[in-house]
Every structure is written in C-alpha cells, then in structure tokens.
Amino acid sequence: MIKTPPLALAALALLCSPAWAQNKCEGPDGRITYSDAPAPRRTRPKR
C-alpha cells in the first residue's frame, strides 16, 4: 500500500475543487457587493 503524505492530499483537493466566479458590482448608492451572478440592471460591474 502506498502512503501519501497529508500535504499532497491537501494540494490535490485544492486543485480538484471547482472555481467559483465572483462578480463585483457597484449599486446606485455606491455600495459594493460581490455575487456569483452577473450584476443586476441597476448596478455597474466593477473590476
């Protein structure tokens, strides 16, 4: 049986995890919000 170091298992878990998109939007009141969906109509996408 092959013994895999815990650090290698943790690195593999990080590499296999899905990438989530984050969108930064500025509302009409100037407040910044983060979402996984595109910016709503009344907001502006920010970089």
From TrEMBL:
<feature type="signal peptide">
    <location>
        <begin position="1"/>
        <end position="21"/>
    </location>
</feature>
<dbReference type="Pfam" id="PF13511">
    <property type="entry name" value="DUF4124"/>
</dbReference>
<feature type="domain" description="DUF4124">
    <location>
        <begin position="11"/>
        <end position="45"/>
    </location>
</feature>
<dbReference type="InterPro" id="IPR025392">
    <property type="entry name" value="DUF4124"/>
</dbReference>
<keyword id="KW-0732">Signal</keyword>
<feature type="region of interest" description="Disordered">
    <location>
        <begin position="27"/>
        <end position="47"/>
    </location>
</feature>
<protein>
    <submittedName>
        <fullName>DUF4124 domain-containing protein</fullName>
    </submittedName>
</protein>
